[in-house]
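Hey,
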Amino acid sequence: MLNIKSTSVAQAPKKRLSWNNPEVRAIVYQILAVALVGGAGWYLVHNTLHNLSVRNINTGFGFLTREAGFAIGEGMISFTPADTYQRAITVGVLNTLRVALIGILFATILGTIIGIARLSKNWLVRTVCSVYVEVMRNIPLLLQLFFWYVILIETMPGPRRAYHPVPGVFVSNRGIQMPTVHGEGLTWLLAGLALAVVLCLVLRSWARRRQEQTGQVFALGRVTIALLLVMPTLAWWLSGAQLSLDIPELKGFNFAGGMTLTPEFAALLFGLVIYTSAFIAEVVRSGIQSVDRGQWEAAGALGIKNSLVLRLVVLPQALRVIIPPMTSQYLNITKNSSLAVAIGYPDLVSVINTTLNQTGQAIEGILMIMAAYLTVSLSISVFMNWYNKRIALVER
């Protein structure tokens, strides 16, 4: 009878702490890299604090609670020289966000139109758009800002001879004066508008599911316009809150009342939109051309109009190519808004420059500028990356 002895399974050899082990070397290299970066950072901070101490320069952000003592030409919130530096910087941040967001909106619209027009079969339209793109992309943005600022200041008439295109609107070298609304009813108007936007998004999702299931197209565009017009008005009417219209009037040598868009804001907005739209046009054009020509031919064989083919077939596919470089252009328009200081628009950089000149807190001021632009840029990147993943093709 044979005796079968059980043998234990051979165990894998234990890993030894040897320099010949690539995992050990990788860990050591990472520790050294972190140590070098940390040491360089410590040296810079220690050296900076030592130099500031030698020169008796105070550090910290305590100056933010002190009185600013300077005026800001325009802002989305009220500001007086008696307010703090913190409020002044808030005004600068809001001014930067205003010009960046409005610039992104109009640059996207104009760039998309020009990008599509560059593919037109009409020679004149195609040539004009090509010239626009090549000229605007190759002229420095700062020079364009100076150009638009001089045009708005030198060619526009004074307040007494201001253009009056529509009742309540005046265009002069002091800017564009427009009527504005005041009162508690404004809050209800904005609440109604926000509700209308939410309803439009819900309705859009429902219309898409309905079309996928039944093939029936819902008139989403007309319903959206109706909701955006009716809901704010209905909310204000039901609230019964007071709403007054403030119309600008010429008093002395300037206008009083209403809302003013200054020449500095207009020049900065024109420059950013025109410059960036040329780059966006190229992004849109290349995205459309990346879609296979067979998509056009297949949709045309079904008798679909070219405009519908572009909107429903080609552009949804082109977005997957357009979105990543479009994100870079949105970041550029946000960062390029810092050139506003050259034409006197009180953006974040301009306000903090005045602040650090008065307080001497240069390091703190530069850190706040960097933190603000980093936060805005990362927010745009996160949103665009989310949208890019949302429209990406899902492989089965």
